[in-house]
Amino acid sequence: MLGAQTILEKTRAELYLEEVGRLYPQFSLAVERMLARRGKDLPLWPNWCLLPMPGWYAAVCNASGCRKLPPEKLKDVYWLAALGTWNYTKGLWRFGAALQHALLATPHLESMPSELFLRLPEWSLYVETRGMYWQGFKLHGFWAHLNWELSEERRELRLLLDSEQGMLPLALFLGNWTVKEAAQRALAERLHLYAKAGVQWNWEAFLKMDFSEEVLPLLTLLAYICSASPEIEYFEKPGGAAELSRPWLLEGEQKLPCAPVVRMRILGNSLGCELHERKKTAGGKWFLPNAAGKACCWLPPQTQP
Q1: For residues 268 and 280, which has the higher predicted lDDT (pLDDT)?
Q2: What is the pTM of this model?
């Protein structure tokens, strides 16, 4: 765990939020206006989605003074959706080293635990990924948020990766299918949208965009956060359990307050120590509580047989 003075320093997530705020200083006002129209002259979307992607697209269009964005501006929509949503919660989630190692050492989920991801504890959260890499580049963390595609009534898990390579947006369609199919469906949709925007892709480039295998460790970490009883404590109050919050309801809200400060949550410190002791006496295999005698193969509750 970092020293108490470190939390006073600005995190990478805060610095990116400030950068987005300089580019789009009025995005909070745009969000409030669209939320006030929710269920009136705008569709009524689920509460687990703060604002669907078309809303963020409109916010970038308004700030840019255009009705249709040029291809190079599309990335701003993905960035603003993740960071603009995170502005209202500012949750930063850090895994204890032992628990992170244990989760990443278990077999990864092949099927999308779609209903589980609808339990994201915040509209958008930033998960640190210490010691992890994406396509050979150091991965500092990622934002995760949910999107409701209005025209298709489609549920999506959206990720924005914070890597040394730069900011990389990913989408996974939530449904009764494998992670690979979830990624393929999202990539096919992106190709379709890029084609409409005049961006040309060939099939070889499409194949190289398959990220299903590399995203599995990230989904494993996210699934633990969404599970029924993750071990969480606040950075400011070590040893004291933190409640697993849920996105609040939007009905009747016209003004939405932004989170005043970043709240860091530490995951699995005590559990990590227990795992370390079990590993030393179990021939190098990881074990989890309530799984005595079985090698660690952690699954979120909704996916257990």
Answers
A1: 268
A2: 0.82
